[in-house]
Amino acid sequence: MAEKENSPDVGVVKDVATEVGDSELAANICVAPPTPKLKRSTSRLLRRITSTTSFDMNVLTSTLRPRKRKRKDVDEDSMSVHSLNIAPHSQHELPSEKKSKRRSMAKMSSFVNMLSPATTKRTFSFKAPSTPAAGGHTPQRQITPYKKPKPASIDRRTSKLWSDTVDQAALSFSSNEIKRQEAIHELVQGEVDLIEDLRSVHKHYYYPMKKLKLMTEKELDSIFGIVERLVPFHEDLLSNLKALRKADGTIDGIGETLSKWVPNLRHYETYCANQVFAKGLLDTKKTDKKVDDFLTRCLESPFSRKLDLWNFLDLPRSRLVKYPILLKQIYKYTEDNHPDKEAITELIERVEAVIKDVDVKMGESVCKYTIQSLQYLYDTQKSLHIEQSKSVLCSGQLKNDRGTKLHVVLFDKVMVVTRTATRNNKLSYQIVKDPIPLSELELIDLSETENKKGSFKSKVLRHTSHDKCAFRVFSRANGHPHTLYARDEHDKRQWLSCIQNAVSQSASLMDKTQPIESVADNSETILPDSSNNVETCLEIEPTITRKQETVV
Q1: What pLDDT score does 188 carry?
Q2: CA-CA distance, 311 to 332, in Å (whole number)?
Q3: Phi-psi label, residue 133: left if phi above 0, alpha if psi -120 to 50, beta otherwise
Q4: Using an 8 Å Cβ cutoff, are 32 and 95 in contact?
Q5: How many CB atoms lie within 10 A of CB 537?
Q6: Whether pLDDT at 251 is above 70
Q7: Is residue 364 within 8 Å of 391, Cβ to Cβ?
Q8: 177-211, pLDDT tens digit by residue?
Q9: Cα–Cα distances in Å, from 172 out to 163, 166, 252, 391, 511?
Q10: Are the C-beta atoms of 231 and 195 separated by less than 8 Å?
Q11: Element (H, E) at 345
């Protein structure tokens, strides 16, 4: 019975039965010889194992069948893996002990092979696409961050001379006539480029931004204005000029054609006046990441020629200013007996008159936009002179005696000292002190600093080059002074000249609109106060005082 228990088949089945949990079968194997009943139980156990696990019958059968291994002579310093005999073999070791060790190792390896699965099934799963939630809400798609593309080829314009577009036989004209034709060709080619750019603005900017809903339609109309309505006017001029071209490529007279077309330039008054508000709105919308990303992508595209949107929107105004220069160039090379000589002279005057009117409209728009950007901290800062102002004569950044940056605006009726502030991504100007009407303004040049008062910092800066950039303004009515520092002496001279001219113009306008006899009857008129420590001259036209008196 001991031999049966130690046989490979019985030992393995006994171990498997114990592992599976059939204790009765394991006990029968230990106490009884292999009977037919025991063989049936063993077969039933093997079937149950093969049905519940993924064992391979060939592997199981080969495991239960004892293998005959050939014994090989090994060296004394070798190690037997089957017997786990780490120590070197001795010649005096009994063969029976070696055989038992090999059998025990074979039994262990066979049992392990039975319990380990022979095959492994791999499963695959596919992730279903995300579906909208029950409420129908679709998650917002994230915007891909902008990556600067590789440098693309820029659509550069090749400028050709008139002599390059005609046959060499046509160059038999005089040198003066060739230069005249070159000037006319520059006028024609400028119209071609302008029409192409204006079409590009609507094709690559207006319609895509409208389709992507980056802005509302009202905001787009405020930014682009009537730029689309300017295209037909220039197309009409271009077609009329091309119709005047002869077979040899020359154009004889253009005076009559331009005289009929010049009245269309009045549309530029509306377009240029809107540019001030368009620029402010565009700068505000650029703070939106989507708008900024779109404009950046357009800037890197070949059609932009490295020009941003505002450069395209400002092209009509630049073209308007260039018309007198082109006409003067044509007039220069036109013969005295030519019919266009007198016509071009009249055209230059008419175009310059339109440009002056456009400048006035733009000045009023700048003034209106600046007034809308002012913020009043106190009700006493509100002044009727600000509302009545029509233009901004000068504006820029100055500093006070503490080094604080200020934004000073000189209107045609009042001077305002402000600080820049940003509210809701929009630039605004907070009024620091009460505005100073030009009728009450006094100006002092602080080239010398012996009477200078202020903070410790101003005393440290005394007798330095920084003092040469200082001047002071104050009101004769309330005496509140503003000590201001320009960036350099040149900037300071410009401010002094602009303020002096504004005060002079304001005084002359008061003389024309208000007679001297009615001044005494007007109780609202503010007269200079002689009680001030500053020596004030009761003159109609005040002048700049070059540090003559001390201001408190």
Answers
A1: 93
A2: 31
A3: beta
A4: no
A5: 10
A6: yes
A7: yes
A8: 889 999 999 999 999 999 999 999 999 999 999 99
A9: 11, 12, 16, 54, 64
A10: yes
A11: helix 340-373
Q: What are the structure tokens assigned to 157, written together?
A: 């314009």
Residue 447 has what pLDDT? 76
The larger pLDDT score, comparing residue 472 to residue 451, is at 472
Tens of pLDDT, residue by residue over 489-528, are 999 999 999 999 999 888 887 766 654 343 334 433 333 3
Residue 198, amino acid: L
Distances (CA, A) of 512 to 336, 385, 499: 45, 18, 20
One-letter amino acid for residue 89 of the chain: H
Cα pseudo-dihedral 323, 325, 330, 335, rounded to 10: 130
**The two structure tokens encoding residue 12:** 């393995």
Distance CA 291, CA 287 (A): 8
In the chain, the percentage of residues whose pLDDT exceeds 70 is 60
Give the chain's mean pLDDT.
Answer: 74
What contacts 486, CB < 8 A, 6 or more positions away? 398, 469, 470, 471, 492, 495
Phi/psi at 416 (nearest 5 deg)?
-125, 130
Q: What is the CA radius of gyration of the chain?
A: 49
Measured between alpha carbons, how far is 491 from 497 in angstroms, rounded to an integer?
10
Which residue did the predictor score with more confidence, 114 or 283? 283
Helix H or strand E encompassing 315: helix 315-332
Q: Where are the alpha helices (DSSP H) in 202-262?
A: 207-211, 217-224, 227-243, 255-261
If we measure between CA atoms, which residue out of 372, 474, 458 comes closest to residue 417? 474
Q: What's at 478, amino acid-wise?
A: N
